[in-house]
Design goal:
Blueprint: H1 8-35, H2 40-48, E1 54-55, H3 78-92, E2 97-99, H4 109-119, E3 122-123, E4 126-127, H5 151-171, E5 175-178, E6 183-184, H6 192-208, E7 215-219, E8 229-230, H7 235-245, E9 249-254, H8 264-273, E10 277-282, H9 299-314, E11 323-326, H10 335-354, H11 358-366, H12 370-381, H13 386-395, H14 402-409, H15 411-418
Parallel strand pairs: 1-2, 2-3, 4-5, 5-7, 7-9, 9-10, 10-11
Antiparallel strand pairs: 6-8
Helix pairs in contact: 1-13, 1-14, 2-10, 2-13, 3-4, 3-10, 3-14, 4-5, 5-6, 8-9, 9-10, 11-12
The structure holds manganese (II) ion (MN).
């Protein structure tokens, strides 16, 4: 673990500044929760065990279709991206795995594994890419990939997904996430039924190549890059895909991939009930697939999603094993800071959901006491759980104040000197 990017002495020194105040705050919150019959240490242990994966592309500065404004010291390749991911894990202790993208992160898988091991990082779900053309590929995905009208293009996309599984096997990954850009821009351009049949046939070929202990996650999105119709447009279609493919197939929920005001927590409940929830790509949005930082716009929605997840955990829902990943585009902030803040917001929502008095909630629901049922959720949501989050980080060797410690470390200034600007970085939004 000597390869950790921030000096352990600095973390200890910074924690020393905050330690006494945290001890007081934690003790005070412990008394409050005790009056509600909640053991704060039991909650802290659960929070300390919660993990969310970082996408490799998240540490590069994102952009929009209008422009991308590079940030200082951007990682120039996957090995530097892993260094940045290690900073996030070192200070938050909530992000021990990285989700890689093929082909953006292409490198010798054995070298990737060795670099991950040196940094104490594991590898989460692999992401394939048939929504853009890679250099030197024979057929273009301009008019689709797994659902393309031409069998040769579909075969190329299938083989790419199988190659992504093969890379993941070396890294110790156990899942493949498939998001396609396939769809149409004009009414009449595509036959909905035939396109979906072709997609299912292609996915069956990918599914057949999955190792026994792997899962395949399909990700729906209602629009973009296709603006009239999308082949995998919503959770209903996604559920049908998971049903058609078999027991290793699950439906992944990216929070930004729904129409505004859709009740996402209810979708989550349905997928859990029918044992097909793959997991999440966390982000936040105001208008569309904005890919803003988790919890920055609508923390109550994030809490309501976690309320369903904790409810499932509480009642031991069968086949409940969600994979958590952040999927954001950091256009105006330091990506490391955004990812740390987002991991903390995700953990905050989880912690608040753990505080819901489920017995009382059930009783209010059964007696149709709408007001008190809502009050039960709001009581958990409005509890300041910051001391629990800080304590969970501290006991695992992280920072009480990750962003403050990161800024004090001068990491960004150091890598800015080490990484001359290349003018571009492979970053994307999926
Ligand atoms: Mn996504």
């Amino acid at each position: 673990m000597s390869a950790l990017p921030i000096s352990a002495e600095l973390v200890t020194e910074q924690n020393g500044i905050e330690a006494a105040a945290l001890a007081n705050d934690y003790s005070h919150l412990g008394e409050q929760l005790d009056r509600r019959g909640i053991d704060i240490d039991a909650i802290t242990r659960k929070v300390a065990a919660f993990h969310v994966a970082i996408p490799s592309w998240g540490v590069g500065t994102g952009g929009t279709r209008f422009a991308r404004f590079a940030g200082p010291g951007e990682p120039r390749g996957i090995f530097e991206k892993l260094d940045d991911c290690a900073v996030i894990q070192q200070l938050t202790r909530a992000t021990p795995t990285v989700s890689l993208h093929n082909p953006w992160d292409k490198a010798d898988p054995k070298e990737l594994k060795a670099k991950g091991d040196a940094l104490g990082l594991g590898f989460d779900a692999m992401n394939s890419n048939t929504f853009s053309d890679a250099k030197d590929q024979k057929h273009s995905y301009k008019f689709g990939s797994l659902s393309h009208t031409d069998a040769a293009v579909r075969q190329q996309a299938i083989e790419h997904n199988i190659e992504t599984i093969e890379i993941g096997k070396v890294l110790g990954s156990k899942a493949l996430t498939v998001w396609i850009g396939d769809g149409s821009n004009f009414p009449g351009q595509s036959n909905f039924t035939r396109a979906f049949e072709r997609y299912l046939d292609s996915m069956k070929a990918v599914y057949a190549a999955l190792p026994d202990d792997w899962r395949i996650f399909s990700e729906h999105k209602l629009y973009e890059p296709a603006f009239y119709s999308t082949v995998v447009q919503d959770w209903g279609t996604n559920y049908l895909i998971a049903q058609e493919l078999g027991p290793k197939a699950f439906a992944l929920v990216d929070l930004g991939h729904h129409a505004p005001n859709v009740n996402i927590e209810m979708i989550v409940a349905r997928l859990i009930q029918f044992e097909k929830l793959a997991g999440f790509h966390f982000n936040d949005s105001k208008y569309g697939d904005d890919d803003l930082d988790s919890g920055s716009i609508n923390p109550f929605q994030l809490f309501l999603v976690f309320n369903e997840l904790v409810d499932a955990e509480h009642r031991k829902a069968p086949s409940f094993n969600p994979a958590y990943m952040i999927d954001q585009s950091h256009n105006v902030t330091d990506p490391i800071e955004s990812l740390m803040a987002s991991a903390i917001e995700i953990l905050r929502a989880y912690t608040q959901a753990l505080l819901v008095d489920r017995k009382a909630l059930e009783s209010y629901q059964d007696s149709n006491d709408a007001l008190m049922a809502n009050q039960t959720l709001k009581r958990a949501f409005t509890t300041d759980v910051g001391p629990i989050l800080a304590k969970a980080r501290l006991v695992k060797g992280g920072a009480i104040d990750p962003i403050g410690t990161y800024r004090a470390s001068g990491y960004r200034q150091r890598v800015t000197a080490e990484r001359p600007s290349s003018g571009g970085s492979s970053s994307g939004i999926v």
